[in-house]
Amino acid sequence: MGNNSLLAIIVVLLIGIFAVVLIQANEETPAEKISNSFSETIEEIGDEIDDNTDAQ
To answer: How many domains does the chain have?
Structure first.
């Protein structure tokens, strides 16, 4: 195996590792999912309260 093919394999592996790291960094942890869901729920409750108080 020549130096060029070895270098090409190393570059492809590094790009693959970099892609996996980026994908994992962008995923939300379970704690983040719960906190986002909780925040959305509180926001929806606030919107419903505003809708009901404006109607009267």
So the answer is: 1
